[in-house]
Amino acid sequence: MDTSDRRTIIEGLVFAAEGPVRAELVADVLEMEKEEVQAILLELQEEYARAGRGFILHQVAGGFQFRTRVELAPWLRRLRSSRPSRFSRAALETLSIIAYRQPVTRADIDFLRGVDSGGVLKTLLEKRLVKILGKKDVPGKPLIYGTSREFLELFGLNDLGGLPSLKEFSDLSPDLTKELDSKF
User: Fold this and answer.
1) Is the pLDDT reported for residue 7 higher than 60?
2) What percent helix, strand, coil does the chain show, rounded to 5?
3) Got the DSSP string for 131-146?
4) Is the distance from CB of 155 to CB of 70 less than 8 angstroms?
């Protein structure tokens, strides 16, 4: 099969997938080298970015996924006739603690927040934004929590290294901080 056929098949695989597709999986399906698949995916990513279409090929959660452009959000909300997902302050606090401190137990989360986080944690588990990583090897064997692949997808991150640092948060202007608070 020639390069154009491979590109077409790879596009189809990424389009049909339920979530981000890893280059390793595509390489296994097409019996190709991972590096070759990765190169084709990066070429396609650049091509879609330059084309100015309504969608892009985005690298997220360790794989590639077609996504609509951010600037189209107002029209997409009208199409869906719904408001974007909003998180309560408690959910954002809990999710932030898990993202930055993982692996973490519920007791750790409760201690940092100063309140019981059981209900919020249950909701985040139901939304599949956090997952149970195992049990801590201490008396009582508490569950250990971490972020999920869906968390990376929702926030458009390829990995946790894409999270802003605490210094970046402290450098935010007060006006921007107020604006972000009003959105969440």
Assistant:
1) yes
2) 55, 15, 30
3) EEEEE-SSTT--EEEE
4) no
What is the average per-residue pLDDT within 70-78? 83
Weakest-pLDDT range from 8-12, 53-57, 81-85: 81-85
Residue 80 burial (C-beta neighbours within 10 Å; 0-12, 13-18, 19+) = exposed
pLDDT in the model for residue 83: 58
Bridge partners for 68 per DSSP:
55
Q: What is the CA radius of gyration of the chain?
A: 20
Model pLDDT, residue 84? 57
DSSP strands (E only) in 31-168 = 55-60, 63-68, 104-105, 130-135, 143-147
Do 64 and 58 touch, CB atoms closer than 8 A?
Answer: yes
Q: Which residues contact 163 (CB under 8 A, 6 or more apart)?
A: 99, 100, 157
Cβ neighbours for 139, distance < 8 A, ≥ 6 positions apart: none
- Cβ contacts of residue 92 below 8 Å, gap of 6+? 184
Residue 67 per-residue DSSP state: E
- Is the pLDDT reported for residue 142 higher than 60? yes
Backbone angles phi, psi at 115, to 5 degrees: -145, 165
Q: What is the pLDDT of residue 6?
A: 87
